[in-house]
Specification:
about 600 residues, mainly beta, Nuclear Transport Factor 2, Chain: A, Muramoyl-pentapeptide Carboxypeptidase, domain 2, 6-stranded mixed beta sheet
């Protein structure tokens, strides 16, 4: 029985009789209505185009994976929210039948790479290069050869369960600064051989209840200086063998109550010269016989205390004491590892508080300090003929949005840290000056939130502090304390995710960084497009000498701020690739 499809209806060449059972096969390819998935999977949703919701970013029909991720961020580690803000047609999305997702988002200012497993496991790379990886199940990583990990910032690890470390070989660690362990319960160390601890200054052990030291073999306490033992309770010494107390100096035994010397055999008390036995009351001498000035008695001889012997650590592997050395073994302190500059360091800071002149730019190209920004710009490197210096900084193709910012800061009555030029006061609160006597203490707190290291050696692009430009180390540290106390602390209060890219820098130029008066900042989880909002808050709430909202050709953004004790100009503007963009006193949206 033949039939055909017309207008979505089955038409039989010979109509079947009423009640007759017929076998009909209808194609799932609805050619009259366009493509239809033969598996019946697509289209996914009724009355919606086939374009993935992640690509369209319709606020009324948001893809559920966006909300899924935003509702499940980890507050303990400060996991940043997904910066998803796609604009059609920039986001290239692939979503499989089971719900796996792959995104390559080229939306300007929100460029991302995102892979999502239907279980919820995903990784996402944010516009500023931040990478977030979340595994909802177990995570296994096996490396059959060597692995090296370099972190230029800080490392934080949070474990809700137990942590186990197993190493077949040795474990070697180096800490250039402090190491602190806070343990809620017990600490147990087991060593198959020896435990050695060395300290070049003090070693302190404190227990609120009891300290027990046990040795199956010998036990020694040695000191080259004074030894003091203070006991508020009883002091007991139980000795199975002999007791020798030998001193080369003066000896005194003083007790507030009775004193008894008892021996089962002889007791000899000998003095090399005079002996005085004095009692303020009665004195009893009791014995079977008592002899005074007995002849033939040998004269008392003084015994000198033996020299203290110190041993090196060469006996660690053999349980012996090693070899005798002339002084206590010093702790081995390794030199800090060299800190190499990253190749893209200039993308995040430069001499940005100094506006270059045409001659400066020409000289920078000649030295090779300035890298052209696109292929056409490489003609500058030939250094022949004339220079089109207006194109050294690549022009922004789109017309930027100009932000109308207020011309003055908040009133000082609402924020005592703010000083406005209109008020005739461009000074900030001074700080207590530091004095360096025994090397630079990078762990010293120079403000409420920041250590000295945070604005120098431990910044993302860190440097050790040194004298330069006629300033002493103390003066540079004081300058860093001024900017941290009066400015950066306020930013940290408002934006806890701030990180210091660069503070002090050793150089011979005119940058305020070189004097400890400037810092460059970025903010975790903040897209370049959002930096203008942070900049607006800063110029309205934070004192500064010069403030710059900076962008690079690679769509990165950061903030530069300088501050001095006095004479702050409160000059702000926008920089693009380390050159001023537009007018002073305006912020431009360049991302």
């Amino acid at each position: 029985m033949s039939y055909r499809i017309e207008n979505n209806k089955i038409v039989f060449d010979t109509p079947p009789r009423e009640g007759q059972e017929v076998q009909v096969t209808v194609s799932t390819q609805q050619s009259v209505n366009g493509f239809a998935d033969p598996r019946g999977y697509y289209p996914r949703r009724v009355n919606e185009p086939d374009t993935n919701r992640l690509a369209v970013n319709d606020r009324t029909n948001q893809h559920p994976v966006v909300q899924f991720k935003r509702q499940r961020v980890d507050d303990l580690i400060g996991e940043p929210q997904t910066p998803y803000n796609a604009e059609y047609p920039h986001n290239h999305v692939r979503e499989t039948e089971s719900g796996h997702i792959q995104e390559f988002d080229d939306t300007p200012g929100f460029e991302r790479i995102h892979e999502f497993h239907k279980s919820g496991t995903f990784y996402e790379i944010h516009p500023d290069g931040t990478k977030v990886t979340k595994v909802v199940g177990e995570d296994y990583e096996v490396v059959l050869q060597n692995k090296k990990l370099r972190v230029r910032g800080n490392v934080e690890i949070y474990v809700d369960g137990d942590t186990n470390l197993y190493t077949r070989g040795s474990v070697n660690g180096q800490v250039d600064e402090d190491m602190t362990w806070n343990v809620g319960r017990n600490i147990t160390f087991h060593a198959g051989q020896n435990i050695r601890m060395y300290s070049n200054q003090s070693t302190e052990i404190t227990a609120q209840q009891q300290i027990t030291a046990t040795a199956v073999g010998n036990m020694k306490l040695q000191t080259q200086a004074d030894y003091t033992c203070s006991v508020d309770g009883d002091f007991k010494t139980n000795i199975k063998g002999n007791t020798d107390i030998i001193g080369d100096g003066y000896g005194v035994y003083m007790f507030g109550d009775d004193i008894n010397f008892i021996t089962d055999t002889h007791m000899d008390i000998n003095a090399g010269t005079t002996m005085n036995i004095t009692s303020n009351s009665a004195m009893d001498l009791v014995g079977s016989t008592i002899d005074f000035n007995k002849a033939g008695r040998a004269a008392a001889s003084a015994i000198s205390a033996p020299d203290i012997e110190f041993f090196d650590s060469r006996g660690v592997a053999t349980y012996d004491e090693g070899e005798v050395v002339g002084a206590p073994v010093e702790a081995i302190v390794l030199a800090p590892k060299p800190r190499s500059e990253t190749r893209d360091m200039s993308a995040y800071h430069g001499d940005d508080d100094v506006e270059l002149s045409i001659d400066d730019k020409r000289a920078a190209i000649t030295r090779g300090d300035y890298t052209p920004m696109n292929f056409q710009d490489y003609s500058f490197n030939a250094l022949q003929g004339s220079y089109n210096l207006t194109n050294i900084m690549r022009r922004v193709e789109a017309q930027p949005r100009v932000i109308s910012t207020p011309g003055e800061h908040e009133d000082a009555s609402t924020n005592t840290a703010v000083r406005t030029p209109e008020a005739g006061n461009t000074s900030v609160a001074p700080v207590e000056e530091v004095t360096i006597t025994n090397g630079i203490d990078y762990n010293m707190m120079i403000s409420r939130h920041f250590k000295l290291a945070d604005l120098s050696k431990n910044a993302v692009y860190g440097h050790n502090i040194r004298e330069q430009h006629g300033l002493t180390v103390e003066q540079i540290i004081n300058n860093l304390s001024v900017i941290a106390t009066n400015s950066i602390d306020l930013i940290k209060d408002q934006y806890p995710n701030v990180r210091i890219n660069s503070g002090f820098r050793p150089a011979s130029g005119t940058s305020q960084h070189e004097r400890g008066q400037a810092v460059d900042m970025q903010f975790g989880g903040v897209s370049p497009r959002e930096y203008i909002e942070l900049a607006e808050w800063v110029i309205q709430n934070v004192p500064f000498d010069q403030f710059l909202l900076e962008y690079s050709e690679r769509r990165t953004a950061w903030l530069h701020l300088s501050c001095k004790v006095s004479g702050n100009r409160q000059l702000y503007g926008t920089f693009f690739d380390h050159g001023r963009y537009g007018e002073w006193g305006r912020l431009y949206q360049l991302a």
